[in-house]
Specification:
Layout: H1 2-5, H2 9-21, E1 25-28, E2 36-39, H3 44-59, H4 61-87
Antiparallel strand pairs: 1-2
Helix pairs in contact: 3-4
């Protein structure tokens, strides 16, 4: 799947595991090294939410993609700010060193 959607295998695996933890997919026994998952929302509320999202995506695809993109960009900005801030952290000297 990772190559089909052009993401690194570890990123796809992490995303699928997060979806499993959110009870949106389930991991299937495969007998193979790579995991297999299927879409399986585990509550009626999740089914309704996914159906609603699919309907909005069909009607307002550009808006949904813009929201997703803006959230991804914000995560990248926050990560960059965190790395930059850590570069200026002054550590206490260890007198024993």
């Amino acid at each position: 799947m990772a190559s089909r959607i052009r993401v690194r295998v570890d990123r796809a695996a992490d995303a699928l595991e997060q979806l499993r933890e959110c009870k949106l997919v389930e991991r299937l026994p495969s007998g193979q090294p790579e995991a297999h998952y299927r879409f399986a929302p585990q509550t009626p509320d999740l089914v309704r939410a996914i159906d609603g999202l699919a309907a909005v995506f069909d009607d307002q695809r550009a808006t949904v993609l813009r929201v997703i993109n803006s959230q991804a960009i914000e995560r990248v900005r926050m990560d960059a700010m965190r790395v930059f801030a850590h570069a200026f952290v002054i550590k206490k000297w260890d007198d024993d060193a």
